[in-house]
Amino acid sequence: MTSSEVENPEIASGKMAEGRIEGEVGSIDGPVRYASVAFGAINVLTDHEGKFVLDHVPPGLGKISVKSPVTKFRDYEKNILIEDGEGKTDIFVFLEVMAGTIEGVVSDENGIPLVGAEVSGAFKSGKPSETMKTDDRGHYVFSGISSGSYYVRAKAEGHMIEGAQASIIGGGTALVNFVLKTGSLSITGEVLTQKDHKPADCQISLMRNGVVVTTTYTKASGDGEYTFENLVPDLYEIGVVSTGYSCKGWRGRIERSEALDFQLETPSLETYSRCHDPNWEDSGLLG
């Protein structure tokens, strides 16, 4: 036995020194908790700060792979070299958002593509809706959409606005086509305070099939009038919300154009509580 073998018992036993990998997994949202980190047969989960430690890593070239606990982020893989000895390798892994697309065609009742129709959707939390117009084939496409469920609307001049749910899973494509019916009906009216018969700052929403189709506003400096146009015969709901007043609601079916006025009342405590209950609805009939 040589002197070097005596001084290095690991070489004498034929065993290679093992390494150690320490790191952190992050994303645009911050640290990624409970991500799966693997190097060969060694596998661990990141902690609540997105950190991980892989012990007893054999030296040599190997692949580290990271899988997110949610489908929002793309998996990560990279080859790294682990040197001989008991050294430590530090690594930071950034998981990119797995982006998908929402696309489709907007056409009329006869199957004719509607050129220049507007399609919109809110695809980023806290950001304004994105809007685009259809091309000469009635086609539209939104790209770079992260995994999740979204509500998309389509509208064209002289046609009823339509909406649909779109779900993006694992960076895939959601196909959402719209058929817009010609609308010739309308609901018009005014919103005034009951006490002073004056206009107020209001948000007035029109719902169809339980989903908000469109929203309009009145201003205290205006005349208090509102209009919903290009409607088709169907069952609708209207909700009126104004700060400092009890909310108002209506539900009914229209077969012709109608006028519907609302009077805003200062709420009692009971009315205020009921108005802010998400399950509350005030319904009535068109006169």
Descriptive labels:
single chain, about 290 residues, Immunoglobulin-like, 4-stranded mixed beta sheet, 4-stranded antiparallel beta sheet, 3 helices, elongated
Helix percent band: under 10%
Give the count of helical stretches. Answer: 3
Shape label = elongated
Order of helices and strands: HHEEEEEEEEEEEEEEEEEEEEEEEEH
Return the CATH architecture of the largest domain.
Sandwich
- Please tell me the total number of domains: 3
Taking all Cα atoms into account, the compactness measure Rg is: 30 Å
CATH T-level fold name of the largest domain: Immunoglobulin-like
CATH superfamily membership of the largest domain: Immunoglobulins
Strand content: over 45%
Largest sheet: 4 strands, mixed
Classified by CATH, the class of the largest domain is Mainly Beta
Q: Give the mean pLDDT.
A: 86
| Poorly predicted tracts of residues | 1-6, 8-14, 276-287
- Distance N terminus to C terminus? 106 Å
Written description of the protein model:
By secondary structure, this protein is mostly beta strands. It folds into 3 domains: 21-94, Immunoglobulin-like; 99-180, Immunoglobulins (Immunoglobulin-like), CATH 2.60.40.10; 185-275, Immunoglobulin-like (Sandwich). It has helices at residues 3-7, 9-12, 269-275, and strands at 19-27, 30-31, 36-39, 42-45, 51-57, 60-67, 76-82, 88-94, 99-108, 118-121, 130-133, 139-146, 148-155, 162-168, 173-175, 178-180, 185-193, 202-208, 211-218, 225-231, 234-241, 248-254, 258-259, 262-264. The strands form 6 sheets. Strands 1, 2, 5 and 8 form a 4-stranded mixed beta sheet that branches. The chain has a 4-stranded antiparallel beta sheet with strand order 4-3-6-7, with no helix packed on it. A hairpin with a 6-residue loop joins β13 and β14. The relative contact order is 0.10.
